[in-house]
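::Amino acid chain::
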Amino acid sequence: MSRQSKRCKRSLPLDYDVAMEMLRKNIAGDYAEHPDRGLVLLCGAIVEQQLEKLLRLKFQDIAPELATDDELDFWFVNDPLPPFGSAGLKVRFACLMKLIKQGMKTAFSGFFSLRNRFAHEPIPPDLSKEIIVLRGQLPQEFQDICKMLENKLEKSESPMPYRTVFWLFVTILMMELRINNFSLTVCKECVRKRSASCSLRVDTLLGEPPAAT
């Protein structure tokens, strides 16, 4: 393997459960003081890794003999410009291959667009305002859940409620990726049994993010 090839290598996308645990620990660990820029960049990195993992699984499902790690690294990782290096392109291609529902495309695109603004603008956007825009890009059923959470937080006078709503928004994106990940990796019966005890079912999403331990 060439020196450049070694330099271009990185770890493969995280398993879903590991990714969610990282999100929980990082967001909850210093929740009240965590800078908005760091919060958005962390969530953006983990959601994009899960999206990449889903695309890799799809390629391996379509052409298992051809979709080797080295071949997939060419498309997703290798310098100077990997064909699928852009998060926006990953979203569009995932929709084209029906890995993301068309109704969720705008939410994913809006999320990564906001991530890029937080990454590159000297003065980051106001997340308390941007989350209103983001939640409006979700399908109506999820908009209603976000609104229910906002109403609950207003009554409880929770500090920085917009971060809790942002956590919910990211969790909804991760749920979308997990559902499609299941369809590529396990049988329908396993999906039914696993989802019955899944901690991320919609009816459990109205609580606060996990408390720091």
About this structure: Residues 14-204 form one domain. The radius of gyration is 18 Å.
